[in-house]
Amino acid sequence: MRILxxxxxxxxxxxxxxxxxxxxxxxxxxxxxxxxxxYWPGERNRRGRATGQTFLDGxxxxxxxxxxxxxxxxxxxxxxxxxxxxxAHAEVSDDGFVRVRDRLAFVPRCxxxxxxxxxxxxxxxxxxxxxxxxxxxxxWFPDRDEVRPEDLARLxxxxxxxxxxxxxxxxxxxxxxxxxxxxxxxxxxxxxxxAPTAPVAQAVEATEPKLVVHGHWHRRxxxxxxxxxxxxxxxxxxxxxPWVHGGTSSWLIATLPHLTLADH
Length: 264
Hints:
globular, alpha/beta
């Protein structure tokens, strides 16, 4: 089984179609998008067109066209109020994913599932570095954006092979120098025990995985994260939508059950 892991897409339907094409080309059963997908179902443009629903419908049609399925984690830039309504009322698949469209699903925060003997966990959410430019409850949800202690309790400490996260575990690329465009307090706190990323690191240490893949920082890198008892965990950070943010390598293909990775 192959899955395509994708970084931030931010409601860019054209880039999402490129990812669906890649998934079809490499016979990937799923595209798993790691948050900041663009779940804004009530979004409308100036002419009143329901652009949020059009985006979701488009992803569903693209997935059918290229023979794949999509599932996304929650990033900090989603409509979390609408996600809460969705998870309360929508159908749930055998994998535990919440149905959005026939071929599009949401992976709830802290959900666990297994494919071909590989145990996955979803840990969406992240600190919103641009919150000063957003409106609480409208395009920033301070009670839902960050990973919190109750999320760690729900995820649990049982072993996982692959936690899929939106944010980086402290100890990843942030130790190697932060994006100079990010606000100074975030750069200053990055990689410390009080950093917004620290709960993600706690989840990784508790579940002792082989691999972590995340988005959020719009940076492609690979890192060996030190773990207890002298172990290490491979951390792969994926870039964001290259049409908007520049750069490359915003996706990886993982082949199960051996977890071989490629970015063809």
